[in-house]
Specification:
7-stranded mixed β-sheet, 58% helix
């Protein structure tokens, strides 16, 4: 410690930081390496066990029939697995039946008889695995695999090198940080020492030192300034009263002038800071929303493709996480708009029942997963149609119900609304959200609606959230001439309540529903024949837009910037333009203004498709000559509704397209109504709803397998067991794929009975009955499809 004290402050800071960082980094990276290698080793072991069970399952019939050649062919499939060095198959008496690499010139099997048929061991550079060959509870022998662990050793070496490199990088960064930190501390002290030396030499006690931070060094600067003031005052006191009075008068004028200048400068700085903040939020919104558009758009497009259940689960979680992240971004932007006074409440006709339906759709899945009962109570006296901002009302309700679900583990959540007061053509509604959750401590209630504050500091870890939801909800409710409050007891739940004022509409409820038809979720409009120009510089966003548009039948042309957009419009006629705003060479504003100068493009719909979502952006788009805007990340439903709105297809065009669609599926509908023994809906889902493809598969099924029952019967009479097994196995797989579930199940039962050597006459009759039921139902398929040229 004494030697450390002799060092400079700079070196002491660097040494202390490195002394903390190096052990932490070493331990952390060592733990990561240990856990990852361990997981890789376990994964290798699990895969090897699965391989042994899988190959053993296929080899059961070979052992049963004593077919050594078939058994060797079964083992040969292991050659495609690089890690497998050798494999041995033993019969039910433990004697060696066959070997994977049993070739001339090779050493014999390590054991001619296996005593222990179920073990897993790492021996040197090999993994030894023995598993019983079992089928329907009966052992037919054993399989013994030898696998190389070279991949595991390589993995250890790669991890070691990677983690060593990572540790060196982190230590280097720690050194740079420590060096920068010491400069922050030592530089102000050296500056203060230099000013003190200068004042002592020149005796100028009017000098002051400034330090922007309110830390310990800042207090030192302040104390130094106070000392200078005392010394200066002592000198001034020695002067005559007249001189002192004149100096005081002059100083007072200077002070007023300085304060006035400081106030002006402070006002300018505050205005500049507000502008910087708005610009920063606008840029941040654009930079975040641009990759978010790619993530959400590609995830949406992926859900339209054929997927495994696991892939579907991954995509649904990606979409959910993206929506949560987008909600956080919107919360931050909403809060910024509220602070700047730019957030406005719209007035439009809406149905309160529709708001509650949307709320129920959004929270029902989470409530069901947690076993929470959701109860809704709407006063029947409330007018069917109100005038107000349904989006912001829904935002408040979703936030309150979402918080209730987050902090409630069991019980129920009750959402109710009733009339609180009526004022001529207005109505004041009282909303409440009551839960049976953890409740709130009394001393936390007052700070609950402050921004970035949560009831308990630990909730950030346990429950998540930005702490902005309630603050935004409170401001929104105030803008609806209401107030938001809460009643709660720890352990006994909470009740959040608010009142809001709305105008009563004279629009019939049915008329409102008719207006909202175009907003039906999941509806993909038919826009074949429409030509759309997409102006977008991001290749990923180009792909998202192109595939979403092509799903409607639109002809898509893509250019990378505004210059190319202007050239494209001059060279070709388009029905609509989707215009990005922030692009190289020429942005969307400039491009739109140039396009509008063309006399033939005065009425061409130009829709802004951008990540800009700050207040005032819409007005900028319209001022530049654009007609509408779509915010990134692109919501497919909003995109399709906007396209439908601006395309305004004529009823004759729609009628013609509907006739074409009906003609395209007329042939399939002639027999895709009832097919005995085939689950049509399930099968269509497997081929992505492609009815024409499904019909072709049925045709091939009849052509390739129409005589399989006769083939099986003939092979059974001749004792050709291998032919019977091959025919039934192939037929079972094809039948299952085409939705002939019962036929597939009967084949499986017949295979098992034949494999066990038990009487099978009854099961054979059942198989034949189901087989001919399916084939008779498909008897006219091949002929019909050939006639219609499908």
């Amino acid at each position: 410690m004494k030697s450390l004290a002799k060092l400079s402050l700079r070196h002491r800071i660097i040494i202390v930081i490195l002394a903390v960082v190096i052990p932490v980094v070493s331990l952390g990276l060592g733990f990561v390496m240990f856990t990852d290698v361990k997981a890789f080793k376990q994964n290798m072991l699990d895969n090897a066990v699965i391989t042994a069970h899988t190959v053993g399952g296929y080899a059961a019939s070979d052992l049963f029939f004593g077919d050594e050649e078939a058994a060797r062919e079964t083992l040969s499939g292991l050659l495609r697995t690089p890690a497998v060095e050798d494999a041995f198959l033993y019969d039910d008496e433990g004697q060696l039946f066959t070997r994977l690499r049993d070739l001339a010139g090779q050493e014999p099997a390590p054991v001619s008889r296996i005593e222990k048929n179920d073990f897993t061991e790492f021996r040197g550079e090999q993994l030894h695995i023995a598993k019983p060959v079992r089928y329907q509870g009966r052992d037919y022998g054993s399989i013994y695999l030898l696998l190389s662990t070279k991949e595991l050793d390589d993995k250890r070496q790669q991890y070691g090198l990677f983690l060593l490199f990572t540790a060196l990088v982190l230590i280097a960064l720690a050194y740079l940080l420590a060096n920068a930190l010491q400069s922050v501390i030592s530089k102000p002290i050296l500056t203060l020492a230099g000013v003190a030396d200068d004042i002592s030499q020149n005796m100028d006690y009017s000098r002051r030192v400034q330090h922007p931070a309110q830390d310990e060094i800042g207090r030192l600067y302040e104390a130094f300034n106070h000392m200078l003031v005392r010394i200066q005052n002592q000198q001034e006191a020695r002067k005559s009263a007249e001189t002192a009075l004149q100096q005081a008068h002059d100083k007072l004028e200077d002070t007023v002038s300085e304060r006035t200048l400081e106030l002006v400068e402070a006002k300018e700085q505050a205005e500049q800071a507000s502008r910087y903040k708005s610009e920063f939020l606008a840029n941040m919104s654009h930079e975040i929303r641009t990759p978010m558009n790619a993530i959400m758009g590609l995830a949406y497009l992926a859900t339209k493709t054929e997927m495994t259940p696991q892939q579907s689960d991954y995509l649904s979680k990606i979409q959910l996480s993206s929506k949560i992240l987008l909600g956080i971004i919107n919360d931050i932007l909403d809060f910024s708009k509220i602070e700047a006074g730019h957030l406005e409440i719209e007035k439009a006709d809406f149905s309160l029942q529709g708001v509650f339906d949307n709320l129920s759709n959004l929270v029902s899945v989470d409530a069901e997963e947690k076993g929470i009962a959701m109860n809704y109570d709407i006063d029947k006296k409330i007018p069917a149609v109100l005038v107000g901002d349904s989006l912001r009302l829904g935002q408040v309700l979703i936030n309150l119900v979402g918080n209730a679900l987050k902090f409630t583990e069991q019980g129920s959540i009750n959402v109710s609304v009733k009339i609180q007061d009526t004022k001529e053509e207005r109505v004041v509604l009282h909303f409440s959200v009551k839960d049976t959750g953890i409740g709130i401590e009394p001393d936390k209630v007052d700070a609950l609606f402050a921004p970035f504050i949560q009831a308990d500091g630990s909730t950030t870890r346990n429950y998540g959230g930005t702490g902005l939801g309630l603050a935004i909800s409170k401001q929104l409710v105030m803008m609806m001439n209401g107030a938001l409050g809460v009643k709660s007891q720890p352990g006994r739940g909470s009740t959040f309540f608010f009142n809001a004022e709305f105008e009563c509409s004279h629009l019939p409820h049915k008329g409102l529903e008719k207006q909202n038809l175009l907003l039906e979720k999941g509806r993909v409009p038919d826009l074949r024949g429409v030509s759309v120009l997409v102006v977008e510089d991001s290749s990923i966003n180009q792909q998202v837009a192109q595939e979403l548009l092509e799903a409607t039948g639109v002809r898509v042309t893509i250019v990378n910037n505004g210059v190319l957009a202007v050239q494209a419009v001059r060279a070709k006629t388009f029905d609509l333009v989707l215009m990005d705003i922030q692009m190289p060479e020429m942005d969307g504003y400039q491009a739109t203004r140039l396009i509008r100068k063309n006399v033939y493009c005065k009425t061409l719909p130009i829709i802004a498709m951008t990540a800009h979502a700050m207040s005032g952006d819409r007005e900028k788009f319209l001022a530049a000559g654009m007609d509408d805007h779509i915010t990134k990340p692109i919501d497919p439903d909003v995109l399709y509704a906007t396209l439908t709105k601006w395309m305004a297809l004529s009823s004759n065009e729609l009628h013609s397209r509907e006739n074409n669609d009906r003609q395209a599926i007329a042939v399939e509908d002639r027999f895709l109504t009832t097919l005995p023994g085939i689950e049509i809906n399930e099968s269509l889902q497997r081929v992505g709803g492609n009815r024409q493809l499904f019909c072709k598969l049925l045709k091939e099924f009849v052509q390739d397998h129409g005589d399989d029952a006769s083939v099986v019967a003939k092979a059974l009479n001749l004792g050709e067991n291998e032919q019977v097994r091959h025919t039934l196995h192939t037929l079972r797989g094809v039948a299952a794929s085409l939705g002939a579930t019962q036929l597939s199940e009967k084949i499986e039962a017949l295979e098992a009975r034949l494999f066990e050597g038990l009487p099978y006459a009854e099961l054979l009759d059942s198989f034949n009955h189901e087989f001919y039921t399916v084939m008779d139902g498909l008897a006219g398929v091949a002929e019909l499809l050939v006639t219609e040229k499908i």
